[in-house]
Amino acid sequence: MSPNDEALSSKIAPRETGYGDGYQQSVDIECRALFGMTPDEMYRRQTGLVTDSIPVSLYGEEDLKDTPVLGGNFRSALDVKAKKLGHIKKAPTLRQRARKAGIELVGSCDLDLGPGKRVLDIASGEGDSSRYLSTTGADVVSRDLSGSLVKKAIERDLEIRNGVREGIGASLGDVTYNIGDMGDIGRSFDDDSEKFDVVSCMGRSFIYLLTRENYESALCEYFDLLNPGGKIVLQGRECVKGYDDISWSEETKTGFGVDPESGDSAIKDLDSGVDFVWRKGEEIINEEGVKISKASRYLRYPDGKIKELKVVDSDEYFSLQHLDKMADMLKKAGFVNVGLKAQELSRDGSDIMFALVAEKPKPKAVGKMSAGFGRRILNRLRR
Question: CA 70 to CA 59: how far, in whole Å?
């Protein structure tokens, strides 16, 4: 933790985006209900997608088991549903979708992280993914648009490194936190020469750029921030869970309900009585056949108080259904060797986490001509 980071905690403007000020509470309820795990466990599994190992928990839990990596014959439940409805003739396999997009299916994502490496972690929220990435020994630059989340990230980092959780802080690479817009991340750096070995965007945050133009612009900027041979990691999620089929809701002390009048869906934290609610929003299909959704979320407390969590626009560009579009955007930005790793995250396999990994090409080596070869060429030219 640098002196600049400590000073930042008292200067950050209270700018809120996304989930808003109730971010951590809503994430905690959602993780327990939809994944059957704590947010800490979810971040460990997500980070395991891109580091090929799940780091030791920063919060003392070490008994987490790996979830299975999906094979090429896997068929998305969304594709199976589309086939049943007659929208498509045959549900493609994951291998078929990847081959069509020019993507290689990989069982691991080797980012070659370790001491001396630098990572830019974008849209990092309270910094959980940044700290987990730093357990490799790499130094991490963490950026999020929400000032209050950045402030909480700094406070959590100080708590860990001050020995509140014994033996963890010493093993971490350095993490620095600041405000940064994922759509214009360069403005968050004072030095135009900043370069990284890995650029990561975890937690499906990439979808909030919303338009193809924004995606392409951001990818070009991330490309420029990478060292030659550096890698980009975009981590996504495909959720096919039905809210009426959560087998472990009682175990995690959460419940579900739908308002018959408004159609709003809610997850209830049975211990506190707090509801995490989705308002039914507008959905449209754009000219490329991609669904755009507008939703708003809020926390409803037992006394009737409502805490709004902001309106969130999102789309389905970054999904297993549109791998070809994502691969096209990555390649257009200059990336090569696009790979896909996908694995189950929730206990029942209805939440699929996946990561797209691509590389910035290294400069092609220019071989030196031998003196004899050079003389032969000159002699031919003289004839």
Answer: 28
